[in-house]
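Blinded run. Sample ID left blank on purpose so nobody reads anything into the name before looking at the predicted structure. Input follows.
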Amino acid sequence: MRGFRGLVVGVVVAVGCASPEQAEVPELGALVGMREAAEAAERAWGVPADLTLAVAYAETRWRIPDDEAHDGAHEGHAPRAVGVGGLRPWLASDPVGTAERMTGLSRELFAEEPAAGVLATAAVLFDLAARRHDDVPPAGDPRASLHTAGDYSGLLDAESRR
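Blinded prediction complete.
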């Protein structure tokens, strides 16, 4: 795992955003870690910080996928997941492109900086929730986020999504 160098992030709060186009993007500002990035995304987009961190942990154990682990695990045939959120560039929903558009940050930054990867994860969760629910599920209702987390995984089989 590469050393954490940090990411500079500030927040512009958006209230009641129903679509990614209406959301305010966290702006560069103060140095933060993964928890702070998740909290900044929660304030900006309403995606619960704990959901963002849980998804990132489930995907990569909060580690940046490295080339050696990827090549060994996938025999070099599949594209590498991006960042601590494990964004899958091969999905038709284009999670990497969505995260780039919503955050204004690059794929390269997601792949190198854990806090940027957390912001990317939250951006994709926001986009998926907005498409599914026309709003982000409330933080106090974890079951409301189950389908969004399943959409994030890219899994189509109902049993696998559970």
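Unblinding after everyone has recorded impressions. The mean pLDDT is 78.
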